[in-house]
Amino acid sequence: MKQPLTRTQVITLASLFIVIVVLALAFFLGGREERVVPPSSVLKDLEGPAPAVEGEGQKKTVTLFFASEADGLLHLEEREVEAGPTPAQEAGRVLDELVKGSRVGNLAVLPPDTRVRQVYFTRDGIAYVDFSGELSADHPSGSEAELATVFAVVNTLAYNYKDVKRVFILIDGTERESLGGHVRLDRALFPNYSLVAQQP
Amino acid sequence: MRRPNDKARPGAALFVACLVLAAFAAPSSAQAQTVLKTRVRDFSDYSRVSIETTQTLAFGFERSGAVLRVKVDSPTTLRLQGEPVESRVVKSLSWAKQGSTYILTIEAKVPSFNYNFYTLSNPFQLMIDITPDAAALPRPSEKPASSASRPPVSAPATTPASTPAVRPPASDPPAQLAPLPPSAKGVRTIVIDPGHGGLESGAKGRFGTLEKEVTLAVALKIKALIERNLAMRVVLTRDKDIDIPLADRGALANNNDAMLFISIHANGSYRKNSNGSEVYFLSLNAADEDTRRLAYLENNAGELEQKIGEQDADELQMILWDMAQSAFIKKSGQLAEFIQVELNALLGTANRGIKQAPFKVLTEVACPAVLVETAFISNPEEERKLANAVFQDNIAQAVYRGLLNYIRLYSQE
């Protein structure tokens, strides 16, 4: 025969139910205030916060592209950067390294005072990179210099992040016709590996 | 091609020019007729009578007062075919035969004039430029007799500083689209784009030479060469030191129904040693872009009858525009190749070949388009050359010759 529940048992079950409901509410609603609001209308297709990179806080080896005085082509150079917490934040640090220049004697292809303001990855494989105005103001101009700068950035991101198919370069948060009168910046660009030296 | 005469030859004179063999075989049949197509076009200071035919002609001139006679000897029957004459300088053209000699009589509206002539081959063209004496030039009746009555295609200036304004002020770039003068209908337009300008100087040389100055000087020389030698109209995207957005440069070409667009630049690099000449035409990231386009169109083909969202419509517009441009890629590549060959021959610079790149100014143009990187202004040795007027003349000549070869190749179309 089934015994009726005692008063103590009813109170315990009711308390347990209330605790579960409170925890469930906290779980489903509590994260709302942490959503990232994109600062620009350009970034309307952003997905939510990117998943954390495995091994956050650890070092990660990435590949950068610099020009060579010898042949004018872009050459690969490996470097360690701090991993994570999101791919976009990590990519910002990778581009910081690109600005700092080569450690093996190749040519830096971004003006030294350029700052990486922000990097966003979208669901459809476009990386938006927002550089400070120095990128264009201090750029030496000329087709060869512009091609080197633009595709060092695009190739570096596409090479290191397999989800990045194209790169859209912004300057001071806005879209530009070009960097200095040549390469278009009004579209997301695919990487161009024809400008890269063949590896030995 | 023969070079044009530099000086007019007034008074009665007879020139008999025995020219090189015809590139096109003339009809050998005794009944064969050769058609001579004539056109008369007004330019700012002169009118040009052009005679085009498939057969190389031997000809001479005889002038008497306001009449210039062109005498042509030909074993075959010659027939004249031309548009009605509408000109400020030329009153009429008439055609007659005396024995075996055909005579084209050009009657001028002015009592005194000078003339120059030159020829082109493939197809054979005889160009006769008739320049009225300054006091005799009548002004168009619909406009007041003032400097403002000059047609928009003005004589090219030799230096940027003395360049006359051929377009309205820079504050409204789309308004710079110079309309064709009524008598120039049918004349093909070539747009020459001197790169950069205004605050946007382009690349800078170590000795202070600015890319925008070199490009303007070269573009003006190219314009002069084309207008002197070809029956074509040249529009410059800028003729002085002003800012013009890249999109407006393309719009200028499109609004003038340009047949070709040639952008002139001087290269710049992070490398000290970069040198040489190269010609670019548009790259649309071919493989990947094509895949994307096809995927989009295939995925959306069944839905096109439904209402297209604003964002999708934008994307579709961009794809259609890219596809329109890709139609010109082959011709652009051909033009690039012709110009590259001449740059190598005339400049003595390193041959960097023809290349493709996603250059903004080329993406805006709905006709074959190239961007000429003449030499490296970032290289001190080439900077000195770029600042030199003779070197600039050679660049202009190379672009002109490349253009001529392109026109010959596609003249049958």
Major sheet: arrangement of strands of chain B: 11-10-12-15-13-14
Which percent range describes the beta-strand content of chain B? 25-35%
How many structural domains in the coordinates of chain A? 2
Mean pLDDT of chain B: 74
Distance between the termini of chain A: 83 Å
Structural class call of chain A reads alpha+beta
Count of DSSP strands of chain A:
5
Rounded to an integer in angstroms, the radius of gyration calculated over CA atoms of chain B is: 24 Å
Discrete helix count of chain A: 4
What's the helix-strand series of chain A? HEEHEEHHE
User: Tally the helices of chain B: what do you get?
Assistant: 8
Seen as an oligomer or otherwise, the chain set is heterodimer
CATH topology of the largest domain in chain B: Aminopeptidase
**In one word, what is the shape of chain B?**
elongated
**Name given to the CATH homologous superfamily of the largest domain in chain B:** Zn-dependent exopeptidases
Number of domains of chain B: 2
On the 0 to 100 scale, the average pLDDT of chain A is 84
- Give the low-confidence spans of chain A: 30-50
Strand content of chain A: 15-25%
Mind telling me the C-alpha Rg of chain A? 24 Å
What does this structure look like?
The complex is a heterodimer of chains A (200) and B (413). With 200 residues, chain A is α+β, with helices and mostly antiparallel strands. Chain A has two domains: 1-30; 36-195, no CATH class. Helices cover 30% and strands 18% of the residues of chain A. In chain A, strands 3-4-5 form a three-stranded mixed sheet. The longest helix of chain A is centred in the N-terminal third of the chain and has 23 residues, at 7-29. By secondary structure, chain B is of the alpha/beta class. Chain B folds into two domains: 34-139, Immunoglobulin-like (Sandwich), CATH 2.60.40; 156-161 and 178-413, Aminopeptidase. Chain B has helices at 211-229, 246-255, 286-300, 310-326, 329-347, 360-363, 380-386, 389-410; strands at residues 33-42, 47-53, 58-64, 67-73, 77-82, 90-98, 101-108, 113-120, 124-132, 188-194, 232-236, 260-267, 277-282, 351-357, 369-376. Chain A binds chain B through residues 67, 69, 72, 107-109, 140-145, 147-148, 165, 177-178, 180-187, 189-190, 192, and chain B through 195-196, 200-204, 211, 245-247, 265-274, 280, 285, 288-289, 357-361, 363, 371, 373, 376-378.
